[in-house]
Design a protein that fits this description.
The structure is a homodimer. The first copy, chain A, is of the alpha/beta class. The first copy, chain A, has helices at 8-15, 19-27, 34-47, 54-61, 82-97, 114-117, 134-141, 164-178, 208-225, 243-255, 267-279, 313-328, and strands at residues 66-71, 101-105, 123-127, 146-149, 158-160, 183-188, 233-238, 261-264, 289-294, 307-310, 341-343. Chain A binds a DNA duplex through residues 7-9, 17-21, 23-24, 27, 31-33, 36, 52-62.
DNA sequence: ACGACCTACTGTAACGTTACAGGACGCCGG
DNA sequence: CCGGCGTCCTGTAACGTTACAGTAGGTCGT
């Protein structure tokens, strides 16, 4: 009784039945008589048996009923990014419908990636990992179904994600159509943790940051395609994907080039820009238009409500769940295209003193 | 090569070494010569061996390096509640520092609680479960370390949580001190999913809702203790813990009793009340004071910034991690008290046309 | 030359479960 | 009285790993 954990065997012996009968008492009640079942369960309770051990079961059944999500950066960061939360929300929702649990795994905690190697999962979802991230190799080494959500496709892995460049171009086109000619873009430059902070050293762009780069270049490309010089666009990099970071970057823009429109590569940054504008008494959208990206819940509640590129992160999470479950079931599904459109709210308007339309 | 998954045995035979040597090649590189190790790993690669199977390892080692969080209601709900997200953030942060992964488990998905029974975890954290929730019994049956975060203590389980009643009383006291005499309280009445929706049938209060009840009664008690009649407080129940729910409830209050102060039992509800007030052209705080509870990130960014009861949910999450890890290590820690104080921002002021102070 | 000691590896024995293939027994129709 | 069938239970044989104890062979100091 000290630490002699009873096992299924123990219970079987005590009840005078075979181990299989005990197992069945828990897992297949229809395979034994009600009285035997009750006797077994009673004796199990008396012995303090806590039910079949999940580890033994997993070993034998060769499944865990769990899907692992590999997150960029440190695990906790996932919760500070509303876009990531929305994706996880959808993912959790889809998996939970199928009775699968969700295991959250950090990426860079240890160089050995022991967490990935020993994760008790049936499949992986990669949340914004780049193809060349060492953790990705580790995941592929597990030879389990994998779905990737993020910027760049990984060879041999189903991918979910929008074309960030095209999507950002829509934002640019909207502003161009309104008549804007001077643009500010707020991006996130540095990775969230140390790494490449020394000047001169090449900055390693991890995870979602790649997607943000794509948004920047998509935006710039669209502006140039409309016939404007590249320096019609000023890109500023925030320290982090936070409202404060966005506000800081926006202040920089407003104090120097003073564009008539700002594109934040995430809603979080754009919302920060709105605060900065409010503080500096720059009226939005009269004197400054602001566009975001993601269509996070908060985007519709800002003052004024934010015009943004909506990419239904929740649905993408659910889609990731569907696909990964299909792969587990041996079905090969095609990933349907993801709707991604500009939602025009009240944070954009023609620039003051100019007419809209007729770009060129 | 069809589906003959190689095992550690297979690799050992192919390499002409013992299984233990293969195991050591992965887990204890210092226990064998570099050349043997490389040979083993090379052959493993050639055979397509993906490394030691986590299920086998878990069975043998009797640990999973994973902590399960049991969530109220359906799993996805966790992500829509910023308070819950903040707690999970802290929890994930603490666990990740210790190399533990986080398994999210829904509660009511299936009546059998198969998910709890077969969860591959070393310990559980209960997020706002009530002592009499059947899932709690299931968790206790697992005989693993458990920490509970939430409203009511569970016998024999370490608990983290503030005294909701006392905390709400602070909010009440603040409003009383300002001179308010007519109060509205926005609570959440019905459980989030079906369950007891029929009139007459007693409503089963699940999870966080209990905490919210405690906040309501703490508030009411404080008002009465100050010498006012119980009907100085009007309680309205929102349909759900969402901004829309809070806004709807606030409209009800503003149209009928028109209190000079509103207490939302969560920030989410209080923020909804702010929107409702703005829409109805009721100036905050001049004509209406609003107080929330939780001190969610968004609370400091509303217009005006929300006065609220701050209970540092992130820290509570980290604390839960610490305690659960301590229990796993066999250490018994005492749970330190949790700081919980009123943060006065700009959403509260004396009621129009009256003097502050001298209550009673 | 001998024991002490180290390095590199091996053998044994679980860890706790469940899939699968039966077997014993009773019942029923012919 | 026999074959067929259904119910309830059992026996066997893994599932893949690792803790622990041990051995073989070499080096080193005296």
């Amino acid at each position: 009784m000290i630490d002699e954990r009873p096992t299924l065997q123990t219970v079987a012996r005590a009840a005078g039945v075979s181990p299989m009968t005990v197992s069945n008492a828990y897992n297949r009640p229809d395979q034994l008589s009600a009285e035997t079942r009750e006797k077994v369960l009673r004796i199990a309770r008396e012995l303090g048996y806590s039910g079949p051990d999940p580890a033994g079961r997993s070993l034998r059944r060769r499944r865990t009923d769990t899907v692992g999500v590999l997150l960029t950066e440190r695990l906790p960061y996932a919760f500070t990014d509303p876009g990531m939360v929305a994706f996880l929300h959808g993912l959790a929702s889809g998996l939970s419908d199928a009775g699968q649990a969700l295991l959250l795994l950090p990426t860079i905690d240890d160089a050995e990636h022991a967490q990935v190697r020993s994760a008790l999962v049936d499949a992986f979802v990669l949340a914004s990992l780049l193809p060349d991230d060492p953790a990705v190799a580790e995941v592929l080494g597990r030879r389990l179904p994998v779905v990737s959500w993020g910027a760049s496709p990984i060879p041999g892995v189903a991918r979910i994600g929008v074309d960030n460049g095209r999507a950002a171009a829509k934002a640019a086109q909207h502003l161009l159509d309104l008549g804007h000619r001077e643009f500010g873009v707020i991006s996130v430059g540095r990775p969230l943790l140390g790494n490449g902070a020394e000047p001169g050293e090449p900055v390693v762009v991890r995870g979602r940051h790649r997607a943000m780069q794509q948004r920047v270049s998509g935006f710039v490309r669209a502006v140039r395609a409309a016939g404007f010089d590249a320096d019609a666009v000023t890109v500023v990099e925030a320290d982090s994907n936070t409202e404060d970071g966005g506000a800081q970057a926006a202040r920089e823009l407003l104090e120097n080039r003073r564009p008539t429109a700002i594109f934040g590569v995430t809603d979080v940054l754009a919302i920060g820009a709105l605060s900065a504008a409010a503080e500096a008494d720059v009226a939005v959208p009269a004197k400054l238009s602001v566009v975001g990206f993601d269509d996070v819940v908060a985007a519709s509640r800002t003052v004024p409500p934010l015009t943004t590129v909506s990419q239904s992160l929740f649905d993408q999470g659910r889609l990731a769940a569907t696909i990964v479950l299909d792969e587990l079931a041996g079905r090969r599904t095609k990933t349907p295209p993801i709707r991604c459109e500009l939602v025009v709210r009240a944070s954009t308007a023609p620039p003051q003193g100019r007419q809209a339309g007729s770009a060129g």
